[in-house]
Amino acid sequence: MKKLLLFTLTIILSACSNNPQTQITQPTQKSKRVVALTPLAADIIYNLDKTKLVGIPNTRYTDVIAKTKFNNYPRVGTNTAINIEIIVSLKPDLVLGAEGFHDKIIAKLQELKIPTLVGKIRSWQDLEDSTTQIAQQIGADPKPILDKYESYTTNIPNNGKTVLVLLRAQPTSSPNKNSWAGNLLEKFKYKNLAADLQGKGRFKGYITLSQENILEANPEKLFVIESANLKPDDFKKLPYWSKLKAVQNNQVYIFHHDGLITPISIDSINDVSKKLRDVGAK
């Protein structure tokens, strides 16, 4: 089957391991019982056809933000602790996972002959492609959601402001152009000063910045990421922080991880799009 850019009906081959390759039964019909291992996949299916969704992950979005909406759906575990027994008990004809996060789970499911879709969203185009692919697989119309996406990117100011996105105080990482965040910055016409820098770690879409790197870049705007584990106030304790012109000009903006770094829902994409548009006009 032709490999698509994002979510693809795929066999993860074990060429890099000592395990024998497993023959996988691919879905030959539209999927009617889908387990989603990511909050975004769960939200997309819910909005396409919620009757096809039979299992969801335990996440901040599904368990807190949209708890009422997802209250009646069985949970299959957290991102790093998926319960295969629960998945099997739900008798899915499709499981949606994220490349790089669920590879081991997907491999085990494939051994059980459970069809899977895996992928990674690194760009707006990936988002549209994955939504369309999922819709086709469950026999739904993606147009209402695609129209929403299109509406989120209207009236983008041509700001051209230089920016760095900072994830944590020490060590400080920042997204380049090969990431969801980096692609969003480009789409909303920011000049990401880390765009062309190459990542050397596990996640190629992110680089590590030294204090000297940040001072030398000295962007017009700084986007600082917050989450349960990321505290923006930690940056204020660093000796170089007050020397940055974005700090001096009150151009430091706080963005939540769930939106700018990782899209967790259709609403989170809308929210971060609005904020990027508004900040770009300042």
UniProtKB/TrEMBL annotation:
InterPro entries documented for this protein: ABC_Transporter_SBP, ABC_transptr_periplasmic_BD
Source species, domain of life: Bacteria
Protein family: Belongs to the bacterial solute-binding protein 8 family.
Domain spans labelled Fe/B12 periplasmic-binding: 33-282
Protein name: ABC transporter substrate-binding protein
Gene3D superfamilies tied to this protein: Nitrogenase molybdenum iron protein domain
PROSITE patterns, per the entry: FE_B12_PBP, PROKAR_LIPOPROTEIN
Natural source organism: Dulcicalothrix desertica PCC 7102
Transmembrane segments: none
PANTHER family per the UniProt record, alphabetical: MOLYBDATE-BINDING PROTEIN MOLA, VITAMIN B12-BINDING PROTEIN
Lineage, top ranks: Bacteria, Bacillati, Cyanobacteriota, Cyanophyceae, Nostocales
